[in-house]
Amino acid sequence: MVTKKRRLVASEPDGRVRRSKEAVLSAAYRLLTETGLGGVSVDAVSRKSGVAKTTIYRHWPTRSALLLQACSKAGAKPQAPDTGTLRGDLTLLLGHIATQLPDARWATVLPSIIDAAERDPELARLQARLHGEMRGAFRTIIERAQQRGELSRRSDPAHVIARVMGPLFYRRWFSREPLDDDFVKSVIENVVGHTKQHR
Amino acid sequence: MVTKKRRLVASEPDGRVRRSKEAVLSAAYRLLTETGLGGVSVDAVSRKSGVAKTTIYRHWPTRSALLLQACSKAGAKPQAPDTGTLRGDLTLLLGHIATQLPDARWATVLPSIIDAAERDPELARLQARLHGEMRGAFRTIIERAQQRGELSRRSDPAHVIARVMGPLFYRRWFSREPLDDDFVKSVIENVVGHTKQHR
Prior knowledge:
Chain A folds into 2 domains: 2-72, Tetracycline Repressor, domain 2 (Orthogonal Bundle), CATH 1.10.357.10; 75-197, Tetracycline Repressor, domain 2 (Orthogonal Bundle), CATH 1.10.357. The first copy, chain A, contains 10 helices and no strands. The first copy, chain A, has helices at residues 2-35, 42-49, 53-59, 63-72, 86-100, 105-117, 121-134, 136-147, 157-175, 181-197. The interface between A and B is large, with 45 and 45 residues.
């Protein structure tokens, strides 16, 4: 009984902290999607979440840190599929991203971060780190393909990732062309076809 | 003499218009690079350029139109090289872009436009059109490679462009990895090597 009581007492502040952090992140994220990065001040987040500014600053030392964690909530971190072939894995993974890119929230918010990072080196570093975590699934499927001998061990996984993510991101944000099945397939074949030459 | 005088009289208003347009575009462009898109209001451009708001609106019906023309001043439109091979042409063209991407002004300003376009469909259309013009050099060298038989006529030039521009843009703005010679070369070989299979 005593132990149980202690646990309850101990968990209560954690629960409150968790809930207030959640409220702050949700408010920051809603503001981001509604107004872009320009509208997300710590003041505005405090008003929208009902959490005091001092509390916000206790959890996130800078506005950039808050923004980035709000974005990472958006769930842009896909799981690594394991179909047994690189072509199969890429089809699932890129297909998933191509479906999300046109209007998933993280995709509409990311340009705000990218833009602000041009003038904020700390944000740039945080964004690159977050993006690195998001690439984990690609790294996993590429390394598995190398272990199977499907892909040369001389292929730099970072190059392969840029060759599959790059064309999709480029069409979404720069050329604004459709991310249709034909296009996604051509991106995959380009990587799978090419790397086979170097086995 | 009469003719000369007429010419002077006729050219004077044009010269004034040209100079005031130049002043407006320069001011807009300086504001863009200093503050990002958020800082570029027609008010601010008017103050910085000394050109009246009514005059600005006469030349550019919307803020978006002004912004885009200010960006296109930045000279992101490269010339098509003609070395005789796709590999040679891509080496020059991508090399040029890879050199500019880290800190050319157009590259530091573009994310502002991309971000604002998420919430402004007119700006999105204008940006896509401007980007299309910027791709002209790629289209030219790809079509020449197809005429020479170096690249299959079944290759969609738009796909090829996404496969070479995408990885570079991706590293510059999303993964923030270096655009070194090795990487640029691997992007080129990926396109040249791959397309040869389909000759």
